[in-house]
Amino acid sequence: MHEQQGEIETHDAKKSSPAGGTSVQVLAPATVANLVCGFDVLGMCLNEPNDLMEIKLLDEKKIVIISADGYPLPLDPAQNTAGAPLVEMINELPGNIGFEVTIHKKIKPGSGIGSSAASAAGAVVGANYLLGDFFSKQDLVRFAMFGEKVASGVKHADNIAPCIYGGITLIRSIHPLDIVPIPAPELFVTIVHPQIEVRTSDARQILRKEVLLKDAIRQWGNIAGLVAGFIQNDLSLIGRSLEDVIIEPVRSILIPGFDEVKLKCKAAGALGGGISGSGPSIFMLSKDEQTATAVESVMKEIYNKIGLAYHTYVTTINQTGVKIINN
Fold first, then answer.
1. If DSSP codes are grouped into helix, strand and coil, which group holds residue 205?
2. Dihedral-angle region of residue 121 (phi above 0 means left; psi in -120 to 50 means alpha; beta otherwise)
3. In terms of domains, do 301 and 322 share one?
4. Cα(144)–Cα(122) distance, integer angstroms
């Protein structure tokens, strides 16, 4: 096992007294960003899969990254999605404080279910616990977004926010950061991850820079309808609002079998769904476990027919976000 250390210069911007112990393990969950129509503004936390991370408090101003299972993660903190947020965090702490992060990577990078966000959110939540919960959740999102910038070149919070807050979140604004938790109904989530990689940075580059006003109006209606559907627990409204006329038509060409999956899963009873984040994973929401399992069977049948390897998950909405599992 190899590890690489990065020395970090800090300044005494805030006062802190570590109060949460010297090490902690966390489960950092997968997330679904966009929720079809809410590009960069909506996100949902999942109960499975999760990264397992261990964060240790150090008495030196440095960040150490360790890949526990040999996964080829960048070990330079500034280039690692868990390390970059911690660099920002310790820049706002006094004294000789640093962290060692050991990552058991279970959420595959490039899968579209928030791999980089899980690393970033897990690192800052665990570190904050060791600091006695010194920083607010909004601060943690602010730090963790630097991990997303490492991954995609853009600071966005639609995976980060639900990973830290749990449930479903609306990112009303990035500048200033304004996060609105939304009541999450008891729904089941079925996900298929075709074993191809779609890099977030690449998926962003193919998007149109301008959209027609009529498309924007339709998209705004869908976003508002989806949020209202969640708040009112109106499953029919949720299903009608899971429509994207701007992003999905472009990105779906990168995902083999996408149109067939979406059509047949809805025929099997799913409320609706679409691309998870930038893909290639596809998610579908269902009202009960029986429907969600039937949807999984449809996904398997399609990808078996295509001859493309895949993973599937049937899970639920995680209402709490990153979980502290011991201290």
1. helix
2. alpha
3. no
4. 9
Q: Where are the beta strands (DSSP E) in 88-187?
A: 98-104, 168-173, 178-182
186 is a catalytic site residue: no
Nearest to 82 by CA among 95, 94, 327, 68: 68
- In this predicted structure, the answer to whether residue 94 has a pLDDT above a threshold of 70 is yes
Do 202 and 171 lie in a common domain? no
Give the dihedral of Cα atoms 147, 106, 320, 282; nearest 10 deg.
90
Segment 48-73, tens digit of pLDDT: 999 999 999 999 999 999 988 877 77
Residues 154 and 204 in one domain: no
Q: Is the pLDDT of residue 284 over 90?
A: yes
Q: What is the CA radius of gyration of the chain?
A: 19
Q: DSSP label at 185?
A: P
Residue 210: active-site member: no
| Claim to verify: residue 39 and residue 172 sit in the same structural domain | yes
182 vs 19, 23, 78, 228, 230, CA distance in Å?
31, 32, 33, 9, 7
Q: Per the residue annotation, which of 54, 100, 148, 296 is the catalytic one?
A: 148
Question: In this model, does residue 113 exceed pLDDT 80?
Answer: yes
What is the domain range of residue 266?
A: 188-316
CATH code, 30: 3.30.230.10
Where do we find the tokens 């802190």? Answer: 16
Q: Look at strands 62-67 and 98-104 and give their pairing.
A: parallel
- The domain tally of the chain equals 2
DSSP letter for 252, please. G
* Beta-sheet strand order (sheet of 188-194): 272-275, 282-286, 188-194, 310-316
Q: Per residue, what are the HEC states of 152-179? A: HCCCCCCCHHHHHHCCEEEEEECCCCEE
Stated pTM of the model: 0.89
- Rounded CA-CA distance 182/136 in Å is 18
Catalytic residue of the set 200, 248, 291, 296: 200
